[in-house]
């Protein structure tokens, strides 16, 4: 990649960036917020699957995903037009229409990226505009020795799959099944002694934008706290 | 390879593997060598195991993963992506509920639910006694008979919830009759 520095215009603001860099990180560096769930700074090959980072580029007929759009000289970008907001809102509504998190009792409450993006896009976390689809999974899948997975909170962004694939021990989790049934799975965790190695890594729990993946230890502590608080609340009125 | 994997299991996990599964695993291990040990042969190997043994045992996936050098998580991801793979041994009476377009419109999903409730298993599973296995299929070419179900190799047409009960009862009756017949023959001979 050439290290040529080019000037682009984003929302009327002139910024400079190396030619060929992905647009999304360039904007973030210059304090122009673009929401995203599936993208990570370290990725060479972003999946562009969440469709939240769409932007308009002058001269292009359709909006593009900024996480996969290389910067070019003289580019004029808009991240805040009404059309873009609408498109992102639709993408967000589709995401949450299959999501079923209970924020009050969620380990990621307040640090959840989905909550932040909901606020940014002025969208409720429970959309009424689309029919809610209840995915046929239990609230909690706990067959992994170290990890707790809550499929109904998972937005299937794939970040955990990415960080796990970067692990030198080779990856242990991946998407399983397909379509509406897609989940993150650690197959073999109950029959694979190597799954216990996850205790030393936990990269996936740190990268999870929502509260879908967490370490069992932390999760248990958190739930105990929640229960305690609930009980205290119950006792107060009497 | 199989020995190593078995040795890595806990006592309780090893006990959960029955004789039949162990035999399948041993055969899978011996058959693996006929394939090149490359990631590109993952799917042909899985298809071979499915065709030969009727399902993919849990530990067979580990054998395959080790053999072609792909992470077990990834192998599972790939195997679950395709509908052709099963993870439970087929039952003596495999029930295939059609959910093709016509059957879907005619309420095939309700029929599937009825079977699930009646047999106490989910789609893709097998009853503990290995008597029934339940599967959904895309189209069996009998759209005029929708909603259709295939039990063994017999097509059941215009299936209704009450007919679901009838199908199971019929199988149970036939089983009972066969058992009595056998008993009669035994006592006659003995």
* CATH-defined topology of the largest domain in chain A: Alpha-Beta Plaits
**Strand composition percent of chain A:** 5-15%
The helix/strand order of chain A is EEHEEEHHEHEEHEH
Residues in helices of chain B, as a percent range: 40-55%
> What do the pLDDT scores of chain B average to?
91
Shape of chain A: globular
CATH architecture of the largest domain in chain A: 2-Layer Sandwich
- CATH second-level architecture of the largest domain in chain B: 3-Layer(aba) Sandwich
Oligomeric state, counting identical vs distinct chains:
heterodimer
What is the radius of gyration of chain A? 20 Å
What can you see in these coordinates?
The complex is a heterodimer of chains A (238) and B (190). Chain A folds into two domains: 5-80, Ubiquitin-like (UB roll) (Roll); 94-235, Alpha-Beta Plaits, CATH 3.30.70. Helices cover 26% and strands 14% of the residues of chain A. Chain A has six helices and nine strands, in the order E-E-H-E-E-E-H-H-E-H-E-E-H-E-H. Chain A has helices spanning 23-29, 82-96, 113-120, 159-166, 203-207, 216-235; strands spanning 5-10, 13-18, 54-57, 64-65, 76-78, 147-149, 174-176, 183-185, 213-215. The longest helix of chain A is centred in the last third of the chain and has 20 residues, at 216-235. The model of chain A has no long low-confidence stretch (mean pLDDT 90). Chain B contains nine helices and four strands. Helix content of chain B is 55%, strand content 9%. In chain B, helix 3 packs parallel to helix 5 (58-68) and helix 5 (58-68) packs across helix 6. By secondary structure, chain B is an alpha+beta fold. In chain B, strands 2-1-3-4 form a four-stranded mixed β-sheet, covered by helices on one side. The chains are: A alpha+beta (238), B alpha+beta (190). Chains A and B meet through strand 7 of A and helix 5 and helix 6 of B.
């Amino acid at each position: 990649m050439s290290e040529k520095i080019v000037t682009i215009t984003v929302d009327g603001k002139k910024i400079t960036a190396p030619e060929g860099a992905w647009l999304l990180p360039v904007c973030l560096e210059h304090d122009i917020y673009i929401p995203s769930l599936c993208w990570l700074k370290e990725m060479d090959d972003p999946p562009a699957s969440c469709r939240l980072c769409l932007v308009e580029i002058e001269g292009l007929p359709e909006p593009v995903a900024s996480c996969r759009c290389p910067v070019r000289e003289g580019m004029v970008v808009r991240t805040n037009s009404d059309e873009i907001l609408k498109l992102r809102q639709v993408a967000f509504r589709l995401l949450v229409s299959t999501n079923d998190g209970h924020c009050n009792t969620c380990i990621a409450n307040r640090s959840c990226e989905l909550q932040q993006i909901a606020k940014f896009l002025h969208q409720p976390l429970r959309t009424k505009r689309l029919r809610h689809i209840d995915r046929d999974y239990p609230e909690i899948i706990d067959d992994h020795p170290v990890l707790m997975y809550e499929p109904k909170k998972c937005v299937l962004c794939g970040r955990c799959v990415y960080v796990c694939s970067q692990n030198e021990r080779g990856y242990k989790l991946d998407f399983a099944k397909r379509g509406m049934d897609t989940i993150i799975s650690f197959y073999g965790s109950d029959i694979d002694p190597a799954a216990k190695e996850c205790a030393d890594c936990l990269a996936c729990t740190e990268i999870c934008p929502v509260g879908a993946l967490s370490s069992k230890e932390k999760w248990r502590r958190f739930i105990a706290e929640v229960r305690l608080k609930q009980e205290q609340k119950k006792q107060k009125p009497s | 390879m199989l020995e190593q994997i078995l040795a890595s299991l806990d006592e309780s996990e090893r006990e959960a593997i029955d004789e039949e599964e162990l035999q399948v695993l041993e055969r899978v291990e011996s058959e693996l060598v006929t394939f090149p040990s490359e990631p590109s042969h993952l799917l042909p190997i899985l298809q071979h195991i499915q065709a030969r043994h009727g399902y993919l045992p849990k530990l067979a996936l580990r054998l395959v993963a080790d053999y072609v050098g792909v992470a077990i998580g990834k192998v599972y991801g790939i195997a679950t992506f395709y509908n052709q793979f099963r993870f439970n041994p087929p039952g003596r009476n495999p029930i295939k509920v059609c959910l093709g377009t016509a059957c879907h419109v005619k309420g095939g999903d309700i029929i599937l639910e009825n079977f699930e409730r009646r047999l106490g298993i989910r789609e893709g599973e097998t009853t503990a006694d290995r008597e029934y296995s339940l599967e959904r299929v895309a189209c069996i070419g009998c759209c005029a008979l929708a909603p259709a179900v295939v039990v063994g190799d017999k097509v059941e047409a215009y299936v209704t919830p009450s007919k679901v009960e009838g199908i199971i009862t019929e199988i149970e009756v036939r089983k009972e009759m066969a058992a009595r017949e056998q008993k009669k023959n035994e006592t006659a001979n003995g």
